[in-house]
Amino acid sequence: MVEVTASMVKELREMTGLGMMECKKALTETNGDIKAAEDLLRIKSGSKASKAAGRIAAEGVIGAYVSADGKCGALVEVNCETDFVARNEDFIHFAKNLAELVATKNITDVATLTEALLTDSNENVEAARKALVMKLGENISIRRLARHETQGRIAFYLHGTRIGVLVDHTGGDETLGKDLAMHIAASKPICVSKEQVSDEILAHERQIFTAQAAESGKPSNIIEKMVEGRITKYLAEITLLGQPFVKDPEQTVEKLLAKKAAKVNGFTMFVVGEGIEKKTENFAEEVKAQMGQVK
Questions:
Q1: What total number of domains does the chain contain?
Q2: Which of 23, 254, 269, 286 would bridge with 241, disulfide CB 3.0–4.6 Å?
Q3: Is residue 21 domain-resident?
């Protein structure tokens, strides 16, 4: 029986990125054969990945990339389970690589992205994702992506790593693009102009406002005016052009763009974990359960 030394464990850890005890156990099971131990860990990592896939991944980062000429850009949301892993440099680097891949290879869906080859290695995205699952011990998933290409210019803004914005604009300068992206991150419009708000959304809001106005007991013609006034205010709140500009609330974004002879063609904003239901757990009860104190 070969003795498993600290240097052997260290070497296997460097090869796999896994924990000390996992590496030591694999070396013991393979009688000190480092290559066999690496293969064993790879086999086990497949099992680990499949188990992790059932866990909720609501943390993560937004990867962003804009080409040097500003003509195309991309956002990618990559999720994990904890903010600890979300701060890992390898995890953040993975997300940035994916954004660059989406932009430069004209990728429009996650399925295609998972099969694409990474630019800095010979492995595909799915293989790299599984390797990260093995290394970091959490479920990691590529949730969504967006790509913009324009005859104008793409600007982007990242608020930390949790909010990412791309703005496709024509006219103005680089500073304006950055300001618009920051405004969107702060004010969170749902679209550029009121013409882009769906009939379904407007009908729903009008129904609510009508019911609210009816409580006033005023005549129907007054109620109608009240509802239309609220709809106008609502549209100003949710559309980029109608919002007061965050750096100068005395003017709307629409007026700012007019002064700069600029136009916003479209934008995308991703917020990490938006719409994902996070699982809440009682940590004390979980520990007790693991210790066999709760049946």
A1: 2
A2: 254
A3: yes
pTM exceeds 0.85, yes or no = no
The alpha-helical segments, DSSP class H, found in the chain are 6-16, 20-29, 34-52, 83-86, 89-104, 110-115, 125-136, 174-187, 199-214, 220-238, 253-259, 283-290
pLDDT, one tens digit per residue, over 56-83 is 668 999 999 999 999 999 999 999 999 9
Query: Using one digit for the tens of pLDDT, what is the confidence trace for 234-282?
Result: 999 999 999 999 999 999 999 999 999 999 999 999 999 887 766 544 4
| Token pair 């499949």: residue | 50
CB of 170 closer than 8 Å to CB of 263:
yes
CA 72 to chain centre: 18
- CA 164, CA 160: separation in Å to the nearest integer? 9
How many helices and strands, by DSSP H and E, does the chain display?
12, 8
Q: Considering the chain, what percentage of its residues have pLDDT values greater than 90?
A: 68
Last residue of a domain, one of 124, 149, 174: 149
User: Residue 110: which CATH number?
Assistant: 3.30.479.20
Residue 113 corresponds to which amino acid? Answer: L
- Say yes or no: 69 and 140 in one domain: yes
215 inside domain:
no
